[in-house]
Amino acid sequence: MHLTREEERLLAGEGGEALSKAMEVLLAIGELNNARRLIPIASAQVSGVSYKTIGDAGLEFLRDIAQSGARVKVLTTLNPAGVPLESARELGFPEEFIRKQEEILSAYASMGIVTSCTCTPYYVGNLPRFGEHIAWAESSSVIFANSVIGARTNRESAISALAAALLGKAPEYGLHLEENRRGSFRVEIGAELKGSTDYAALGYYVGRHYQGIPVFSGASPGGEDLKALGAALATGAISMFHFAGATPEYREERLEKVEVGEEELRSVWEELNTCEDPDVVTVGCPHASLEEVLAVARLNPRREVWVFTSRQVKALVEEKISNENIKLIADTCMVVAPLEELGIKCIGVTSAKAAFYCANLSKLKVRFDSLENLLREE
Ligand code: F3S
């Protein structure tokens, strides 16, 4: 991979050890993927935030970078943390966990990163333009940025997104290149999709069975449906999709067809459902939009619903929510918070991504269903 003189100097350590390590990371990834060069990025979204997922080794690593004085070069936002920052103690999260989580966030803050703690950075001010190059981690925001916004990012890891943020650059390969953003197969939807949970089931099925860039047709999704579809697709290895009539880079082309109908969607419900009566019903994977929070309020739930969202959305709506069963929780989510340590055994979710990770990462039993159905079964 070609490096500029400035990049060579950084690699040699002239900008300090942290930037030299960051150059090493991007160089290794770039060479592995035959990138010709590094390109400037407009923003980064960094994952690897919850103490539950990065542990002491991750904290140590971040502490070292923070102490080196390195700072990010571009707008950089942060994925959800392991606890809601304002109410963690009140909700009974373990003290040791909270303390380590605070340390992780202060390390990121000292690098100049906005501690937004949300996986929907595009709702809170990190909204790239069409065609812009960015380096985002967090698979649901990556696929949303590529597919719905038309920005360009590979699925970065926690380390490569941080390295890109510190350098303001990313290796030019994969989805940064026009020729790799075309559809690779067409999905004909042979089932009626009644809401975003159905879109999540569709995405989960396609993400588990196929790779490449699916091109969907045969339905009219709204913005939240596209968000749910993308997050579920990204539970597999897919980082971009097109949807006829709904996404900006969709184009007519002749592609191999696959059909996903009632039977395939039923297999998803059967796979993801492992319990009947949830201890708690949760919404907001990815973090709920303003519209999604208001939709929960319109249902006027008679059992408790935890709605995970960003601090900004929470602040905008909390005064409008009078139903005490709706708990708005910012900064974290049902997957990266240690809910299993709060005694929860069966969790109700509307998101296929949350269903998959609650079962596989947190070892919880899952009820995956539409919110209407989860609330109906009191
Ligand atoms: Fe976001 Fe947590 Fe889901 S980070 S995409 S709400 S697993």
Written overview of the protein:
The protein is of the alpha/beta class and 378 residues long. It has three domains: 5-178, 2-Layer Sandwich (Aconitase, domain 3), CATH 3.30.499; 182-269, no CATH class; 273-375, Creatine Amidinohydrolase, Chain A, domain 1, CATH 3.40.350. The chain is built from 13 helices and 15 strands. The protein has helices at 5-11, 17-32, 51-68, 95-110, 139-149, 158-167, 196-209, 223-233, 262-272, 290-298, 311-317, 352-360, 371-376, and strands at residues 38-40, 43-46, 75-78, 135-137, 155-156, 169-171, 185-190, 214-217, 242-243, 257-261, 280-288, 305-309, 326-330, 346-349, 365-368. The strands form four sheets. It has a five-stranded parallel beta sheet, with helices on both faces. The longest helix has 18 residues, at 51-68. The radius of gyration is 21 Å and the shape is globular. It binds FE3-S4 cluster. FE3-S4 cluster (F3S) binds next to strand 11 and helix 12.
